[in-house]
Amino acid sequence: xxxILEDRRRLALYLLAWLLAGVLLTIGLQSEAEWxxxxxxxxxxxxxYSFIGLSTWYLCRAFPIDANARLSTLVVVQVAAAATVSxxxxxxxxxxxxALDGLVADLGAQPFYARQRPALxxxxxxxxxxxxxxxxxxxxxEASREAxxxxxxxxxxxxxxxxxxxxxxxxxxxxFNSLHSISALTATDAAAARKMCILLADFLRDTLxxxxxxxxxxxxxxxxxxxxxxxxxxxxxxxxxxxRETDPHAVGCxxxxxxxxxxxxxxxxxxxxxxxxxxTIRMTARREGSTLTITxxxxxxxxxLQSRGVGLGLDLLRKRLTNEFGVSGAVRAEERxxxxxxxxxxxxAI
Length: 350
Prior knowledge:
The chain is α+β, with helices and mostly antiparallel strands. The protein is built from nine helices and seven strands, in the order H-H-H-H-H-H-E-H-E-E-H-E-E-H-E-E.
């Protein structure tokens, strides 16, 4: 369907524009004492031309202006179409003028029309080219909008694909580190290793269940992180201490799954576990307006050797949040005086 006919308001504005064109044509072609005759003949003809002009949409689509179009062919087609449409319009005008003289005596519609026929033929061709130019602009606008929609859809699909790839990288990262923890524990405490296997099974079950959702309550994310820390406390014992502080307004926030998990895992594996005396992991969560801020602090050995896995979870989390929310700087990490601090800022619904 023609784009103008799809919207009543758009059609009303289109007809109003043609009515104004008819008024200008009436004023331009009338002579003294002929204003009524001019209006009676030309205003209906202009409204009729408004619908005839809609046909240019289909011709413009058949012969678009693009890199592959031949200018000579385009000019010949549009000139021939303008002459044909103008001739048809004049024929209808002749019949309309005769009908007016039959309905209203002494109106003089046919004599008026006969005098103005050459000028109307030129006007008809000009109106056709004006309509064609407008339709070419409309086609260009529609093509630009469709291109923007396709580009947006491709961006969304690419972002979703990258998020899936990042999640696929994160899940093995969790599992491998957890299995290494169990492996280390089996050499010192078999009973604790069995208990840790049971806790790990529950942890992985919750990880798979929550990880399949686009958003989860922050309370569930917090509980998942605490379960991981409970597993690590079996291995590290009193060396691992936990300090928690949660804003009550932050508990109900909807967040992407597994955003807190890489933070606590990094704090344990590359922080507390590397220290002979261990240390305390401090976790805070607070909500300020439409932003949820999560902070995790842990002591670390400033002289430790940097392994390949250090920062992998944080880097994947940074990419996830950047792709999902379109903002950079969502994850900030700094190390100062033996203290490693990570701050994550997540946009949430108000």
